[in-house]
Write a structure and sequence with these properties.
YdhG-like domain-containing protein, 4 helices, seven-stranded antiparallel beta sheet, Aspartate Aminotransferase, domain 1, YdhG-like
């Protein structure tokens, strides 16, 4: 099976133009803070993935079904309902950190935060660092 035709692809759109267009002031400011952290953690510049995700690094995946593609190693998106942080390995391996993170919701690899003041920022940074390290160890 060929690579899946994903909407979420790295592109050359301006990350700052995108973030500056976020209407919710708190979400915009929180996004700029998270972007700075992720730049520090990864040592990479932010890239747009699709129209609304800011990502760092790339990995290639291949499922048993034969489906394969490229995806960001870590990133975030200032969605209307919440700031979504993409922790690609999921959250099971980070149970202890999650217990002291604060107020949040999760999906499979999505961490939903209403505002940064709802969470312990040092725990969130550590979660991002550990996720980044894991993705680099697993995918190079």
């Amino acid at each position: 099976m060929a690579k899946a035709d994903l909407k979420t692809k790295e592109n050359e759109a301006s990350v700052l133009d995108f973030l500056n267009s976020v209407e919710n002031e708190t979400r915009r400011q929180d996004s700029l803070i998270v972007m700075k952290w992720m730049e520090e953690i990864t040592g990479l510049p932010p890239k747009m993935w699709g129209p609304s995700i800011v990502g760092f690094g790339t990995y290639h995946y291949k499922y048993d079904s034969g489906r394969e593609g490229d995806m960001l190693k870590i990133g975030f998106s200032p969605r209307k309902a919440a700031l979504t942080v993409y922790i690609m390995p999921g959250f099971l391996r980070y149970e202890e950190l999650m217990g002291s993170l604060g107020k949040y919701k999760t999906g499979k690899s999505c961490l939903y935060i209403k505002k940064l003041t709802d969470v312990n920022e040092s725990v969130l940074k550590e979660l991002c660092q550990e996720s980044w390290a894991y993705m680099n160890e697993k995918y190079g």
